[in-house]
## 1
Amino acid sequence: MPRVRQPVDPAWKQSASDSTRLLLVPNEATPSELTYERVAPVVSKMVWLYLATDPERDDVAQDILVAVVRGAASVREPSQLEAWVAKVAFNTICNLFRRRKLVRWLSLEALSGYEPPAPNIDFEGRELVARTQRILECLPVAERMAFTLQLLENASLEEIARRCGCSDRTARRRLKAARERFMRLVKRDPVLARRFAEPLAPEGRPSDG
């Protein structure tokens, strides 16, 4: 099974040709390598979405890749492989967050002190991502998984409900609760408070003004 060749790429964007990438792999490639060519971009996207600045990010990506390559044969419809991989990655990351909650109950007191940014930080880059994820860690896991999809991927309500395995009504309730918690916590971080000065719209998307 091929190892991850490089850290997950935050700039990955799925193209219409991804589902046909098997056709572009050399004939001598093994079945595992063929599968890897299709699933690696999907795993990279999901891991970056939830674990962009996490020190365990690449290890988690590798664990997911091993699991999906081994289990890919169970997918009966080849065209559904990418959707299945996204679900496996989503569930794996969700379980990771739950395990962490059991080991270390995150307290809102963790945000009580202001941590000044390092000099020359790119405020539109890693610093904002790190601070945002620090706050997302304080949300209940179910709310975090749903709200992250909306905040960082701009996913629709229907997509969030499908990914989370719940009804639209439940997804909407989780998003509302998460949004309220998130905005309360953002006010404790002056850097993010300036960035999120415009309140999120009712469905969680930035206001158009």
Note: Confidence is low (pLDDT under 50) at residues 1-25, 106-119, 204-209.
## 2
Amino acid sequence: MKKFLCSVLLFIFLSFYLSTFVYSQNFSGEIGEIKGTVEILKTGEEEWTPVVSEMPVQLKDRLKSAENSSCNLELDDGSVIFIGENTEASVEMLELTAESHNSKISLWFGKIIANISKSKNTKMEVHSPTAIVAVRGTEFAVETNAQKTDVGVFDGEVGVKNTEGAEISEVTVKPDEETSVQKGTRPRPPSRLVLMQKYKERNLRIKNRVVALRERLKRLPPEKRAKARQIAFEKFQKLREKRIEQIKKNQQKRKVIKRKAIKREMHERNRP
């Protein structure tokens, strides 16, 4: 019996270790520069959990930042995507090689500012409720809600098109230009940066972060990055387990309080 229990425990430990190791290698980047409250909703789950620095993000996971909160997605090709405050976004696709960048980000609401590494084959899309932003290696910002999407470009070019309406149309936005897309309408013709000018200073800070990231990527080989992400993910797993346990305890407390309230109410009703 003891041998059987030891075998089961060993199997569980190895399964957990291998799953976290594979998970840490399954995303070519990690979360960095966390400020304030940033949480992640894992695929297939219902509870949000605080993120951990250096942890990887699995495809389809959602990131959510609170007010005065933010983080970076720092990718292995030296690209940085800044997730601003009051934002919810997810990575739908990410394929990086030495010569290509292929990614898709869903921006449900809020804002991102991105510095995407230029390579021979760079293809990135940002999908918002009203627009699709096509990127070919550039520096840009996107801000969106359910009714409108604003796009500003600081370097390079992006194509912006509407997702709804009688006619789908695309405009090209060049450096120091911006456009906007109202729900169900075509993109506004590009004009000089005005509304999105406010993100230019943040973009300068992101450029400095990009320089630091690329230096770090030179120093750290892929296996060491994967190991660091594995450790970060294990830390995240423990936080998630604690959060789930606390939620269960709170639910149990509410049930006890509810039962007592019902019991008191029935007692009051039955009093002569």
Note: The first helix runs from residue 2 to 25.
## 3
Amino acid sequence: MVEITPSASRHSYASEHSHMWGIGPQPIMVAAAALFLVVIGIGGILAWRSYSGATPEPERLTASRLQQARVAQASEQLIEKTKGIEATQQQSIDQLQVVQDQLQTMQRLMTAQQTEARKLNEQVGALTSTLDNLRQSFASTSATDDKPAAREQPRRSRSRAAASKGRTKMKIVVQRKRPGARG
């Protein structure tokens, strides 16, 4: 084993301690040098900012104000566009209501016209059936009138001119009725 003497132990501890921390025997001088370097660094930064004339804080403020102005302008444009869309939408709604009112009016008119057309069809049907009945009764009346005239010819109670004149009138009447009956 190795023997340690008191003087050797002091020296070995001091040399170990100085190697371990890397600080020399005068720590106050090292601390003063470090403080001096820090002060010179801060002074250099302050000098650089003051001579360059541009500090980051005002630039940041300017940039943020610019950004706020852009946002405000975009918001105003958005509000204007929204109001424009609202106005257009309201106009569209108003126009749609007008069209719906017109459609309802047209539907009412069409329903009324259909009802009127049905009534007229019924009236035409009634007139057609009445006209058919009149034709049938006229045809039966003319058929009965022709038979007595044939019987009267042998009697010769009438003159030939009077009898032929009556027949001609009947034929004219029948002829006149028939073309009108077709239409």
Note: The chain has a mean pLDDT of 77.
## 4
Amino acid sequence: MIAILEQKSLAKGIGMKKVLILLFLFIFTYANLSDLQKAAKAGNKEALIKLGFMYENGQGGVEKDLDMAKKYYSQAAELGSEDAQIALSLLQLNSHIDKKSVSLSNSVDIEGESQIDMKLSVDDLKETLIKAKKLDKDALYTLAVIYDNGFGDIKPDKQRAIALYKKAAKMGSKKALKVLELKKYNVK
């Protein structure tokens, strides 16, 4: 096989070293994917999240498939992974943004504070999602508020809201910590 690759690579002007590197990466990627799939079948939360991420982004030798990403994230969330709950939340919001079905404004009520009017354009929400994927505390807090109260056609989801508040608090958001304390959510 290497001899055939060498002949083809020389004919195309590609060095043999590059061909071997590409072959190694191909084998490593699929061995890694196979290992992840085995670990996921065994109920490994981290493997389920990694597979969800790979399918969400079309990386690691798999085609982009949001249904598969949702499947893997859901399995990890059922096993108690807050990171998977957050990934599901972001995936759901992404689909709402793609459909452009999110309302541009909404009033939200935070216990202990007066009502707040939230106004987000679709572009603002896209930017918030990008920041949340990078674990920006303010973006995570904003998404937590959206899930806590509902926003546009996004229904309230307390479980996702709590996971997002906790992640935002872990990243240093004092507002998220305050909401967790006010609503008497278990802060871990």
Note: The longest strand covers residues 105-108.
